[in-house]
Amino acid sequence: MCLAVPARIVTIDEIHAWVETMGVRQRVNIQLIDSPKPGDYILVHAGFAIEKIDPEHFRFLNDTLYEMFEGTENE
Amino acid sequence: MNDNRIVERLNRCFEYVQSQDIRIMEVCGTHTRVISKSGIRYLIPKEVMLLSGPGCPVCVTPETYIDMALEILNLEDVILVTFGDMIKVKGTCFSLSDKQAQGSKVTVVYSPEDALTIAAKNKDKLIIFLAVGFETTAPLIAVTVKLSNERGLDNLVFLTALKRMEPAIRFILQDERSKVNAMICPGHVASIKGADHFRFITEEFGIPAVVCGFESQDIAAGICVMLEQLTGKGHIEFVNLYKRCVSFSGNTIAQCMINEVFAIADGAWRGIGIIRNSALVLNDKYEHLDAVKRFGIKIERYSSPVNCLCSEILLGLKLPYQCSLFGSVCTPEHPSGPCMVSSEGACAAHFRYGGDRKNG
Ligand code: SF4
């Protein structure tokens, strides 16, 4: 249940931001991270940004996420 | 696993492990799933056992908590709001989905913030949010509680079963029967609390502990480091292998949120019992938003279901296949015990992805 997915901040709207994960946009709360900016990479858990991450790690996580989804198609 | 260097290093470690029994426990449900799914169990020698601790918040939520939620659903004009994971978990007799089938209003949300929207749109109804989770989820709930208070949403209350990881780990390691030799620390709890929060495992109990990420390579690397330490190829120390997401001091904003909204209390863990100081409950400032206080619900004494070995499994003393109900009476479709309910539960992960008999 503590699963968190990587995302990139696109726009900020007060305490929320529109973020993108694997091409999908969602609105998340950004009150738990320090000075969020568009372009920042974050970890999202249950609709909240919980930590900033570095861009390289974002790419790694994003690739693994793709792999994970490909692998679960027939489950 | 696609990183050959890790596999090579892991293979080298296996040579060091001679007939020495090694038990490595993970205490995060996501780790449990990744370990089972990636097939790491099939790679490691039979002397090394990977045990699943109480790492799934759904699996450790006691029956009495579900019973309380079901009791609240008997009231008129209530909407129960919950994370999807909770819906199939049985209380003493029934689950929320049983109750939903009888017409009760249960709404599944992805974010706790959705409860605010539901409360604002349904002023004539009472909204109860089931606040379940570890310290990864607790700050999100804290923000939601604060926003609800600021917006004056007095029709939203919280039924909390939030847990702290550190007292549970201590409880397991202090158990005289415990044979855990090394611990994989929960990565996302650590991203909130900081890696240092788990340093006590090595400092007080003298065993290797590693903060790991959630890819199979991360876990393999963690196992590698711990095996090297346990076989004398490295000295016993606490290691953070998940620096990309976990700093040593964690997310201080999230920690402040937890401290601002919650107080520490004793908590009931399904399959284990009461663990001192292991729960987060709403503090005095926010207790008017606590469902238990609002409804004056009596909390029943906790008791485990008959024949279910979950308590021993969560403490790392038994493996799922050693339960006589595993796979016959107890399956993910018809779970008898909590470890079979969520896909992150030890029994469900073993049922779904298998495991050989030596390793469950
Ligand atoms: S198989 Fe079912 S009954 Fe047995 S320990 Fe696991 S959850 Fe409990």
Describe the structure.
The complex is a heterodimer of chains A (75) and B (360). With 75 residues, chain A is an alpha+beta fold. Chain A has a single domain, classed as SH3 type barrels, CATH 2.30.30.140. Chain A has one helix at 55-72; strands spanning 5-13, 16-21, 24-29, 41-45, 48-53. Chain A is globular, with a radius of gyration of 12 Å. Mean pLDDT of chain A is 80; it is low at 71-75. Chain B has 360 residues and is of the alpha/beta class. Chain B has a domain at 63-164 and 252-295: Rossmann fold. Helix content of chain B is 36%, strand content 18%. Chain B has 15 helices and eleven strands. In chain B, strands 4-3-5-6-11-10 form a six-stranded mixed sheet, sandwiched between helices. In chain B, helix 7 packs across helix 12 (252-261). The interface between A and B is medium-sized, with 23 and 37 residues. The structure holds iron/sulfur cluster. Iron/sulfur cluster is lined by residues 308-310, 313, 320, 323, 325-326, 330, 336-337, 339-340, 347 of chain B.
Précis, in short:
The complex is a heterodimer of chains A (75) and B (360). Chain A has 75 residues and is an alpha+beta fold.
The level-1 CATH class of the domain at 63-164 and 252-295 in chain B? Alpha Beta
* Shape field of chain B: globular
Q: Identify low-pLDDT runs of chain A.
A: 71-75
**Rg of chain A (CA only):** 12 Å
Largest β-sheet summary of chain A:
5 strands, antiparallel
For the biggest β-sheet of chain B, the strand order reads: 4-3-5-6-11-10
Number of helices of chain B: 15
Radius of gyration of chain B: 21 Å
- Fraction in helix of chain A: 10-25%
The number of distinct β-strands of chain B equals: 11
Q: What structural class do the secondary elements of chain B suggest?
A: alpha/beta
Which CATH C-level class of chain A is it? Mainly Beta
Shape of chain A: globular
Identify the quaternary structure here: heterodimer
Which spans of chain B have pLDDT < 50 for at least 5 consecutive residues?
356-360
